[in-house]
Amino acid sequence: MDAQVRDYGCASFHSEEDSSIRKGPWTVEEDTLLTDYVTVHGEGRWNTAARYAGLKRTGKSCRLRWLNYLRPNLRRGNITLQEQLLILELHSRWGNRWSKIAQSLPGRTDNEIKNYWRTRVQKLAKQLKCDVNSKEFRDSMRHVWMPRLIERIRAADAGASTAQPTTVATAIHSDYERYYCLPSQASNANEPVSELIDPILVPEMSDESLDTQTSDPSDYQNNNRAGAGGYNSDDTQKGSSFDPISLGWYEMENLWNEENIWFLQQQLM
DNA sequence: AAAAAATGCAACCGCCGACCG
DNA sequence: ACGGTCGGCGGTTGCATTTTT
Q1: A133-168 pLDDT, tens per residue?
Q2: Which long-range contacts (CB under 8 A, 24 or more apart) does A230-235 make?
Q3: What does the record give under GO molecular function (predicted)?
Q4: Strand C: which nucleotides have any atom within 7 A of a protein Cβ?
Q5: Which of A72, A121, A162, A248 is most buried, judging by how many CB atoms fall within 10 Å of its CB?
């Protein structure tokens, strides 16, 4: 941060005017004031922005509003399959470092990704009655959820375009086939790899409960409402219904090379 | 149709490290 | 060296909306 940023000339501004600091939802007028100010003066200097834009907000509040809602090129709407895949993979690498993960998802904010994780992923862990940080859950993500996402991306590609089939999904899937020694005709979307996984799927981990890629918000809601079922904590402890190690699936690690992640990112651009 | 429950997301909070005088 | 302030980050909360009962 440069010296200019810190040249406020009124260090006690907040403490003197705390009583008039606004909180809660932003109004259209406030949004306009902040947008106009940032358009002219650029990002940063948030306390100065709050003052000179005539906003009775803290600098932190202004920064958050700008970064999470007002700034241009923000991506709105449902998290796509590719984005879900990236989030799952990057979270497995970096944990709850949301801002770092967000850097790999153009137009998405750390807040959005964090909310996605909490509402979808943690809820699934809860349904499965296992800790979101447990080995069981992480394995199920890596070896069940993520391959199914890849499969769905690939299926969507196949349906969307026959002219340019070589996308990240197929690229990743070719690795998948190689490592799992799957039939080469797996490029046929009518023969989903997920069938090979289904026997170890717990009932509530169906596509319907995992997938968020629907255009209809009501579908999105409904997809969230798969009931809790057979994958109870006893099963988890016994390891009888899910054991990727014994199934020899640990080669999966090789699937997540930098190239495939780069492909995913490019597709999101 | 109405009440209750669940959901999703915007916004706030508290902590931390960087920077400055 | 030290205290004050800021921006950035992850965690949490509040509430409007949606869905279920």
Answers
A1: 777 788 878 777 888 888 887 787 777 655 444 445
A2: A230/A202, A230/A203, A230/A204, A231/A128, A231/A129, A231/A202, A231/A203, A231/A204, A231/A205, A232/A129, A233/A129, A233/A130, A235/A202
A3: DNA-binding transcription factor activity; sequence-specific DNA binding
A4: 4-12, 18-20
A5: A121
